[in-house]
Amino acid sequence: MENAYHTPVLLKEVVDELKIVPGGIYVDCTFGGGGHSKAILQKLNADGKLVVFDQDEDAKKNLPNDDRVIFVPHNFRHLQRFLRLHSISAVDGILADLGVSSHQFNEAGRGFSTRYNADLDMRMDQRQTKTAFDVVNTCSEQQLHKLFEQYGEVTNARTLAKTIVVARQSTLLKTIDSFKNALRGIVKGNPNKYFAQVFQALRIEVNDELGALIEMLQQVPPLLKPGSRVAIITFHSLEDRLVKNFFRRGTFEEAQENPFTMIQQVNELKIITKKPIIPGEKEMKQNPRSASAKLRVAEKVMMV
Ligand SMILES: C[S@@+](CC[C@H](N)C(=O)[O-])C[C@H]1O[C@@H](n2cnc3c(N)ncnc32)[C@H](O)[C@@H]1O
After folding, report:
1. Which residues line ligand 1 (CB under 6 A)?
2. What are all long-range contacts of 301-304, with beta carbons under 8 Å and residues at least 24 apart?
3. I need a surface site. Which of 4, 68, 137, 284 has the fewest CB within 10 A?
C-alpha cells in the first residue's frame, strides 16, 4: 500500500497477529499516515472503536471521517491516562509502529534528515521546547559521548563529543550544515552512514524515545483484556531489546532478591513471536525503509 505520507510496514502481518475482534476496542499508538489504522478499521464492525495516538500535529490531516476513531494528539507514554479520559479501562489490542514517519523525514524543515539543511530541530511534538539544537549546544561532553555511543552506536563517540564541544565555543551550531561541517574531519567510514547514526542518536535523545517506550510498555499488561494482543514494530536494536525483554518478563522491575518473601513476579504476557517477524524480500524492495523493521507480538494470558 503506497502512501506519500508513510507506507505502513508489515501491514498484513500486524493485522493478522492482532486477531481483530470485529466489535473490539483497539489502540494504534503511532497513527502517522494511518495505514495500519485503516487496515484495522476495515476489520472492525460498527460497534468497534479505534483510539489513535500521535504527538505530531501533522498526523491529524490523515484522520478518516469515521465515528469509530478517537484521536489523541499526545505522547503514547500517557496511554492509560487518555484511555481513562475516554472511559476505556481495557482494550482488545494495542499496536505501536515506532520511530518517525517518512513524512517527518521528508519535510526538510523538521530537521530529521541529513539530506537537507535546516535548523537542528528533530522534535516529533512541536509543542515541546527541547530541540536538537539544545542537545548539541548544552549537553556536557560526557552526556554527548554517552548518547552517541548508546543511541547511535557511533564508533568514535568520544572524539565526536569532544569535537562538538570545541566547535561550539567558536561557532553557533544552529543548522544541519553548520553541524555537519564541524564534524567533517572526524567522519569514520561512509559519511552517509556515519551521519545517519549521529542523527539517530540526537533524535532518540530529543524525543526521549526509549523513555516513552518503557512507560508505554509498562501500561500494556493491565490494559489488555485476557487473550488479547500487543504488537510492536521497532527499527533499531535498542528498542527491539527493550520490547523483547519486556515481553519475556512482563516488567522492567528488578526481580525480588529476598528468598524468604514468597512473592513471585507473574508475567501476564505470553510471547507469540519467538523470533521477530521481519519483512519479506518483496516488501524490502518496494519499501527500503522497512528493511530494519522487527515485529514482536505478545498476548495477555488468560487467568485461571
Ligand atoms: C513510523 S510512523 C507510524 C506510521 C503508521 N503506522 C502508518 O501506517 O502510517 C510513527 C508515528 O508515530 C508518532 N510517534 C512516535 N513516537 C510517538 C510517541 N511517543 N507518542 C505519540 N506518537 C509518537 C510519530 O509522530 C509518527 O507519526
Report:
1. 6, 8, 30, 32-36, 53-56, 59, 75-77, 97, 99-101, 124, 212
2. 301/226, 301/267, 301/268, 301/269, 301/270, 302/226, 302/227, 303/226
3. 4
Q: Classify strands 49-53 and 91-97 as parallel, antiparallel or unpaired.
A: unpaired
pLDDT digit string (tens) for 63-121?
Answer: 999 999 999 999 999 999 999 999 999 999 999 999 999 999 999 999 999 999 999 99
Nearest to 3 by CA among 38, 49, 28, 30: 38
Distance in Å, CA 47 to ligand 1 centroid: 25
For the chain, where are the alpha helices, taking DSSP H only? 11-18, 35-43, 79-85, 102-106, 132-138, 141-152, 157-170, 176-183, 191-206, 209-223, 237-249, 281-286
d(CA 171, ligand 1 centre) in Å: 34
All three cell numbers of 201: 542518536
**Which residue among 124, 127, 200, 287 has the greatest number of ligand 1 atoms within 8 angstroms of its CB, and so is best to mutate?**
124
- Say how far apart CA 62 and CA 31 lie, in whole Å: 9
CB atoms under 10 Å from CB of 158, counted, come to 16
Threshold 0.85, pTM exceeds:
yes
Across-strand partners of 97?
Answer: 233
How far is the centre of ligand 1, averaged over its atoms, from the C-alpha of 240 (Å)? 16
Place of cell 502481518: 13
Nearest atom (ligand 1) to Cα of 103: 27
Q: Residue 46's beta-bridge partner residues? A: none
- Backbone φ and ψ of 211, nearest 5°: -60, -45
